[in-house]
Amino acid sequence: MCPFPLATAAVTAPRTPLRHLGRGLAAAMSTARPLKSVDYEVFGRVQGVCFRMYTEDEARKIGVVGWVKNTSKGTVTGQVQGPEEKVNSMKSWLSKVGSPSSRIDRTNFSNEKTISKLEYSNFSIRY
């Protein structure tokens, strides 16, 4: 488990477990505005600093789905899907904020496209 706690507000904020949201989140997002999908890779000091945990938390706060994982070359990679404005918020977070102990040198985005439906039901950490 990550030795760095999430910010107090994130820990104390009430949450609905994803199992209770079920298809509701995906269905609500699918019927709204056009959906976007984008792949990303974050470079810098992004491993060993709880980057994946904070990314998962931020994605759930923003309301996007997808995944995040560490790579063997010391970067973090993943995919984000959701309404365009929410995907753009997540892109900004991945480029400028990250976890408190991280240092983001650059973030590459690729394969950005419009999709007709979400491919994931939540945001998860992959191993």
Automatic annotation (TrEMBL):
Its EC number(s): 3.6.1.7
Record's catalysed reaction(s): an acyl phosphate + H2O = a carboxylate + phosphate + H(+)
Active-site residues, Swiss-Prot/TrEMBL: 52, 70
Keyword Transferase: no
Single annotated GO MF: identical protein binding
Keywords: Hydrolase
Annotated Acylphosphatase-like domain residues: 37-127
Source superkingdom: Eukaryota
Family assignment from sequence similarity: Belongs to the acylphosphatase family.
PANTHER family with a match to the protein in the record: ACYLPHOSPHATASE, ACYLPHOSPHATASE-2
Protein name: Acylphosphatase
Provenance organism: Catagonus wagneri
Lineage: Eukaryota, Metazoa, Chordata, Craniata, Vertebrata
